[in-house]
Amino acid sequence: MILNMNKWYNRKKRLEQLEKHVSVTRTARFGFNFCAESDKIHRVNRHFDTIATRYDLMNTILSAGIHYAWKRKAIETLMIKPKHRVLDVCGGTGDMAGLSASITGEKGLSVVYDINRKMIRQGEKKSLKGVTFVQGDAECLSFPDDSFDSISIGFGIRNVTHLETGFKEIFRVLKKGGTMCCLEFSKPDNTIFRYLYDLYSFKVMPLIGGLITGSKEAYTAFPESIRAFPLPGELSLILQKIGFKEIKIKKLTNGIAVIHSGRK
User: Fold this and answer.
1) Is the pTM for the entire model greater than 0.85?
2) Rounded to whole angstroms, how far apart are CA atoms 244 and 143?
3) Where are the domains of the chain?
4) Smallest Cα–Cα separation from 203: which of 185, 189, 223?
5) Count of CB atoms situated within 10 Å of the CB of 143
6) Which residues of the chain have pLDDT under 50?
7) What per-residue confidence (pLDDT) applies to 4?
8) Is 11-189+218-263 a domain of CATH 3.30.750.24?
């Protein structure tokens, strides 16, 4: 199903991202399109296989470098201390884990957990000091209960087939009293700004993506997935039901990006 360029999903359609709908219909969304529940993970992997070698460059170009500031602000909400154990779920090439590692120090631990091998390889090439890379599925974290002092997930939860399961796994491996932050794209507050953002997302972004990565399609699914994703208040309720407390919402750059932070 293809919507008009400036169309954001209503609440009913946004909730189709949630586990109850996915489990009943056996379908999941990839951008604006449906796919089999079991196929989304493969589509996500193919998507990142295509763009992995240009992923960091594209993030910097498309955001004009602002994504670095967003990630710093997200990590600040975790209140990381030296010697802490920190996990970055769907951590890709390790930007957020690198920020965490600069605080935890040599006696701490900063782990990137990502399903895509090509993304991990790109991260390993960056030789981030103090960062360990682990390949695995965000819906089944390969760590014992209560393993980490803090956990982050940046621009990754949209790619998880069963969103609540992903957050439940984060809750499980987080220590009691530990902190969590989720940095994700969202709907800009200002109407005019939102219109310009839509123009950029659906016209400029796929064009640049096609020129640099060779895949215009990859950077079409990206803005579509943002417009189908639950809004901040809706995501906060999900986190609350899972068990997170002291949930806070911080909007960045007119609401283009949002940090959800909480505590176990």
Assistant:
1) yes
2) 19
3) 11-189+218-263
4) 223
5) 18
6) 1-4
7) 47
8) no
